[in-house]
Design goal:
Strand content: 15-25%
Number of strands: 12
Oligomer: single chain
Largest sheet: 8 strands, mixed
Number of helices: 19
Radius of gyration: 22 Å
Helix content: 40-55%
Low-confidence stretches: 1-17, 30-35, 277-284, 363-383, 407-415
Distance between the termini: 40 Å
Mean pLDDT: 77
Strand order of the largest sheet: 6-3-2-1-9-12-11-10
């Protein structure tokens, strides 16, 4: 199915991006609370700040957006380039075999959702939303030029498997996720892991984590029907993060993340930059850009106090102000000036105030690019695997793995 895009969208994709140029929201990323396919309020805030917003998800995300935004509003959002809608018929997962036995094994892989091609999905989903087959088919024809299929790169499966075999990173990552999800639990110090190959891409993983004890405080906030802390569940966070990073790098876009996945991303990218810095001048670090003068747009939309249709009126009037952010580096004063101009004399001003956080990479430039411009042995000497070299290469080519942090940690570990 061919996809036509506006000239505005083509220009955004071709340009070397600065902060606020593009962001990726991927369904399945960040391990949001039960029932939350995609945070519609966070999507609204992303569209206010970013020139390009890529929403990547399965059929249930298209249905969720059509129901919560309304079919006509969603069509205007994708048609006018406020967001793009990318459908994927496959899904990165961790399969568990022989669960609960001494031979329990894990397979990081990408599972294909059978026969769910886009040309079949759109009419079916929109028929459910509109309540009539004919109306759904007509709506699907209107959407066809603006929705495209996105197949996860084969590298996602390869890179996920390598991440799950990277012992130093795995140790750090498991510790980060465990501390975020069960902060009251007394975690083992040091956290020990033992990785064994189990054939055909599978691994066995032994740790000294007491999951029974860790689940006690976790269960007070998260029902068993949603999830339980386990080796497989922690590995699933690592696989999901890899899909987030590779997908965002594909779109040359920043990432929309919960605080949990944001901390995990810092651990992954920080370890890559640590090794790179041994051969180059200071390349960059994540620094928080705190913006405490925003209004609770996300909360108002998620609660139903305001609709995406209400917000669309704000987007329509924000065009000339959004030009201010094109190609600009992270600057709190610039963001505040832009935000005040966009929201002045509108219903947003009457909403409660809150704090918004961006995690940005600073001092990021020539030192990293020089690594790839120099002798091939320089990169090899960093000791990075194929998966991490892929990310480092994308960063050297201009990708900024900045993060738009969707909310507070408390929201994402409560029922």
């Amino acid at each position: 199915m061919a996809r036509t895009v506006s000239s505005r969208w083509r220009e955004g994709a071709a340009r070397k991006d600065g902060m606020f140029e593009g962001i990726c929201l991927r369904e399945g990323s960040s391990f949001r609370p039960a029932g939350a396919l995609l945070d519609i309020g966070a999507l609204a805030e992303a569209m206010l700040f970013y020139q390009r917003v890529h929403v990547v998800g399965r059929a249930n995300v298209i249905e969720h957006l059509a129901r919560t935004c309304g079919v006509d509003v969603l069509l205007e959002l994708v048609r006018d380039g406020y967001m793009s809608l990318e459908y994927y018929p496959d899904y990165p997962v961790v399969l568990t075999e022989d669960q609960g036995t001494p031979t329990e094994r894990y397979l990081p892989t990408v599972v294909r959702i059978g026969h769910w091609e886009l040309q079949n999905v759109l009419p079916e989903v929109l028929s459910k939303v509109t309540g009539a087959t004919g109306r759904g088919r007509r709506a699907a024809r209107r959407f066809e030029p603006y929705v495209t299929s996105f197949i996860h790169s084969p590298e996602v499966e390869v890179h996920s498997g390598l991440d799950c075999r990277d012992a130093p990173y795995l140790q750090t990552a498991l510790d980060v996720v465990l501390h975020q999800l069960a902060p009251e639990h007394e975690h083992p110090k040091p956290l020990r892991i033992e990785i064994q190959e189990a054939g055909e891409g599978r691994i066995r993983l032994a740790t000294n984590i007491n999951f029974t004890a860790a689940n006690a405080p976790y269960r007070k906030r998260v029902p068993r029907s949603n999830s339980s802390l386990s080796t497989a569940y922690l590995l699933a966070h690592i696989v999901s993060l890899r899909a987030d990073l590779d997908t965002a790098a594909h779109f040359n876009a920043e990432l929309s993340m919960t605080p949990i996945s944001g901390e995990l991303a810092k651990a992954k990218l920080g370890s890559i930059l640590d090794r790179a810095e041994k051969s180059a001048a200071r390349i960059g670090r994540f620094e928080d850009l705190i913006f405490d003068d925003v209004h609770a747009i996300r909360e108002a939309i998620n609660s139903g106090e305001r609709s995406m249709g209400d917000f669309l009126e704000v987007l329509r009037k924000s065009g000339r102000f959004r030009e201010w952010l094109k190609g600009r580096e992270a600057d709190a004063d610039l963001v505040k000036e832009y935000y005040r101009a966009v929201t002045r004399d509108r219903w947003i001003e009457r909403l409660p105030a809150k704090t918004t956080r961006f995690a940005v990479v600073s001092a990021f430039g020539a030192g990293l690019a020089a690594l790839f411009a120099g002798p091939a042995g320089v990169i090899a000497g960093l000791g990075l695997g194929v998966a991490d070299t892929f990310l480092l290469d994308r960063m050297a080519r201009g990708w900024r793995p900045n993060q738009f942090v969707e909310g507070t940690l408390k929201e994402f570990i409560s029922e």
